[in-house]
Amino acid sequence: MTMGKVLYYTLVDLARNRSVLAFAALLFVVAEGLFLVEGEAIKAVLSLVQVVLALVPLVALVFTVVYTYGAQEFTQLLAVQPIGRSAILGGRMLALGLSFLVALLFGLGLPLTVHAPGGTSLVLLVAAVLLAWVFLALGTLIALVNRDKARGVGTALAAWAGAVLVYDALLMALLFAFSDRPVEPFVLPVAALNPIDLARIAVTIQVDLAAMMGYSGAVYKKLLGSGPGIGAALAFMLLWVAWPTVLAFRVFRSKDL
Amino acid sequence: MDSITFKGVGKRYRKLWALRDVDAGFHTGEVVMVIGPNGSGKTTFIKCLLGLVRPTSGAIHVNGERIGDDPAYRHRIGYMPQISQFPPALTIGQLLDMMRDVRGLAPERTDDGLVEDLGLSTQLQKRLGTLSGGTMQKVSAVLAFRSAPDILVMDEPTAGLDPLSARTVLGRAAAVRERGGTVLITSHLMEEVEALADRVAYLQDGTLRFLLPLREILARTGTDRLSAALPLMLADPR
Amino acid sequence: MTRRGILRRPAAWALAMGLAVPAAATTWTVSPKGPHTKLRTVLSTAAANDSIRVLAGTYAEGALVIDRPLTLLGVGAPVIDGGQQGHVLVITAPNVTVKGFVITGTLVSNIHDNAGIHVDGGDDVKLLDNELRNCFFALHLVNTKRALITGNRILGDPATPETRRANGIHMWRCADAVIRGNRAEHHRDGIYFEFVTGSRIEDNLCRGNLRYGLHFMFSHRNDYAGNEFVDNGAGVAVMFSHSIRMTGNRFMHNRGGSAYGLLLKEINDSEVRDNSFTDNTTGLMVDGCNRVRAEGNSFRSNGWALRLFSNATGCTIAGNSFIGNTFDVSTNGDLMLNTLAANYWDRHLGYDLDRDGHGDVPYRPVGFFALLVERIPYAIIFSRSLFVTLLDQAERVIPSLTPDALKDDRPLMRPPHG
Predict the structure, then answer these.
(1) Is the pLDDT of residue C63 over 50?
(2) Do B and C touch, counting CB pairs below 8 Å (3 needed)?
């Protein structure tokens, strides 16, 4: 009840803020641009995959962190009202999550539906939304744990770089080091522990990855195309949304405002 | 009768104890002036009561209920912070509507008399981001009083307010006392609040040095003003 | 075909003479209503060079043998059903024509190469406009010169498992054949040649075959033009042959772990020109080839457009366009004795200040990641990771691992064709 009110007023604030709108517009322009430049829709989708996998987590993370710090006074104002802490945080996270959802539906979903309707586009869109939520949750946690804003933003950027670059770099280095051992069965599952990699693989396996991975590619494609496979991937992404969220609630419940 | 009791309340920020083992009771129908030097723990004391800060030790009871995760007790509390920051894109009117909605306050039970009294009724369309500090304080005062609270907490309420508005606000605070409410006020400007205060709480380095009726303080020190009495009291609080 | 070309062929001479001196040829009619109802009887009583008209109906008479020069014309698509006894039609004489039949009912066998039409030594055979329905082998020719195979529809059953499938058009030790305008679908290999020379294969469609759309070995001096190879399990593989010309063919949607649009293995002195490679796992793979020229081809949306192994020498890759491929070029070693020249690369971002249509700075189409994947195949799962993209950019700017010769000195600024 009160959470609904916090949700509503945060949404109103986000709508006035225009940053989310700008993000949606940016995505829209990038997507339309790619579809315009690339002759074939599927190629534009693949280019879009790279943009989305880097940009969506970055924007979701940084925006959430900055917004959380910016909302400190408003949070205090709410916290002295007869409103529970979880209603305040829950309302705000839901509002951010909804805003990201709408921004992605408009900025990404609309161009994809118009230019490349189909399974791959749907997977990309779902992956983008889930990634936005994962990094919304991580961003909230980071901002709540670090009292200092500069430190929070720094941590957020480090987390982003870790997920989008460092993880792959380390994994590839390991792969190289152990290339004479039978590590193949472990590579994809370990890569998929990183939500960005999981999203990337889920999308590209629909397009060309499966064929290029040979026999195991066919197996993975089948797996990721099956009900239980999709369910597991979704569940894993939601787990990535859940654990920072749970931690954030625990931190916020006893946080000094 | 005590409406608020602190029992052994302490608050530690990392290594620093901002509040240490505070025992105090606040009655219905009184105004208590909370004073102390900068960094003495006044704001932490207030924040503990409001639930903004979790005490490291001890317990706070409001109307017999120990405060914790349940936010319901704050229905009875009105709070006017030292510095107010509001969502800058909202207008005053939107903020008032929003806060009433958030508190679940029915319009007919909302006391917005201060809007008129502080001259805000012509400024409801102004955006909060464009307001002066004084006007922000007025908005803050309106928010503190409008739910007709049993407990009123004001942190430096007169700082930034013009003298006329300050008097209006303090007058309202007195009315809360007359209704049987409990009013806690921190202030540097002693004279203004002194006229109102029934008791005085003095905090120093996080410790409650004394909580005594103003009358008794003046009598004990043989002075007629708190500012004159304080140095004597601190030399010998007993 | 030129006039001189026709006259040089003995089959054409025979035809010309037959027309010039009309023999006392008889035309027989076989029909369920008579006068002759059994095809087998007519085949054994007809004289050489007679014609047999076969009217609509089903002729299930077991395996039939044509052992003298005859012309069989199906009228209204009569069905010859071999009844799963072996071959359906066996041709052992030269100058036989079989046209307009539906042929079915071969026996699936692990020992015998049973076929819808089996030709052994039947020079100048003409197999025209027949439909071969669910045959084991469909057309199976051995030791036959100057076969003409056109307009046949060779349709296997998509549900048949690989162990019960054989090839659509299978030729062994044949020469100077013309295979044109046929369809071969859902067999093991669409077209299979071994020791076939001097033949022309054009405008055929091979689709949905479990293994290769086209598969040949030790088959020199053949021309492949305008064929379409789509959705075959492993694409097209051609090996151990020389003097091959492949022009204007389309290699499409051949996807799978080891599927190739076109695999060239140990192919020498050959040309691959103006073909299109679209949406294959590997577009063109060049393994152990010498002096192969790949020119004017279009590579689109393949996983690997071109895999040029370092054991290939003297090959020229010129005037091709590479668009929308995951990897444009990949190789497996440091040595590179082949030439890349004047291709269009969609990833090339160079400039053309002198406006001659070519980039002013050499372009290196092999990325670091392509090389990595060549060494550790399952590193492919990092495809399109930001880290990989950055690595590739770095490798292009400061080449450290790419073979030095693997570069295009004059990259085209615009694709040479559409």
Answers:
(1) yes
(2) no
